[in-house]
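User: Thanks for the earlier help. One more: Cullin family profile domain-containing protein. Can you show the sequence and predicted structure together?

Assistant: Of course, both are below.
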Amino acid sequence: MAREIIEWDQGWDCIQKGITKLKRILEEQPEEQLSSEEYLEIWTTIYTMCTQKRPHDYSQQLYNKYREAFEEYITSTVLPSLREKHDEFMLRELDKRWSNHKVMVRWLSRFFHYLDRYFIARRSLPALNEVGLTCFRDQVYNEIKDKVRDAVIILKVQHELLEVFANQPLEKQISACRALLTDDKVDDLSRMYRLYHKIPKGLELIANTFKQHVTNEGTDLFQQAEDAASNQATTSSGAPGQVLIRKIIELHDKYMAYVTDCFSNNTLFHKALKEAYEVLIRKIIELHDKYMAYVTDCFSNNTLFHKALKEAFEVFCNKTVAGGSSAELLATFCDNILKKGGSEKLGDEAIEETLEKVVKLLAYISDKDLFAEFYWKKLARRLLFDRSANDDHERSILTKLKQQCGGQFTSKMEGMVSSLHILCFITYL
């Protein structure tokens, strides 16, 4: 039985679909990987088109189309992407395009493999692999080689300058960063970020300085509030507290804009801002104790002053902080107190007092369920990985939370603690 003839248009349409799919994959566009069935269909189509009798032997046309596939891809996609970039970014793009090109050569060589075995060998033509690599050399490298040379020279000079800069005394670099933060030199901070991004561990240096600066500025606000409260202790308590809370929020918004605009949303700086605010959480707790004493001792527990204090703290406690909620920040603060090796180094009495104050602060958070979710996850990690420093403290805070928010609020957490203790007891037996 005679084999069915594959006409040129029919065969090339099948091959073209496979090449197009490969290009989409290389460009990281939504596309499923090439299946073994698709690969076999393309290979078989090319094999058939090369072994048919004349005038249906399309070996020469396929060899020409193989080259054209590279030329078209380079002209339409590769060169435009390289022309729009410069210096280091151009070199990175070139490296990416060269890697992609080698992948494309490897796959198309497999598709057209039958040409290499017979047609190319008999006619002493350049092999498929050579054709693919030559296309890149002739079309890409020959066009951008001068730009590549200039970019390499620029990078070499930059590297030498960065080495000189990085070898400056540490205190001098920190002082420069502090000065820019103090003077709100946003553009200069952006430039400093881009510069230090190229220095090994350079960003850690700026992030730590940033964290310390935010903490210091927040601490200064607390000192100002204390001074104001001392001067007004006989007249009001709500006003200094409300002013401070507003300033703390403004401080956060200001430096969150720095993280976004100057530091390219880098996670190191999100972490630094969050850690700075964990320090301020402790100060917020101390502040609440202070003003609650004013309400009690100076203002005879008058409901007007209770209301003023409540409104001031509700503003802060429901503010988004460092890309997360205050509920998450409070849960993290508790975790640092309760886990082994946490950042809060306190004695047993101090831990109990601090946990009591955290629970009081929780009263001002509107979404207490969100706090419960974060707290439950952190509790699970402490228990499952044996990171809990003290079982009594774990039970103590759950009791306090239960008294404050009700049994339903803590039932899931209490169940987890009890289950783990039963498991440990059974294991011990």
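User: Great, one quick takeaway?

Assistant: Confidence is low (pLDDT under 50) at residues 233-239, 425-429.
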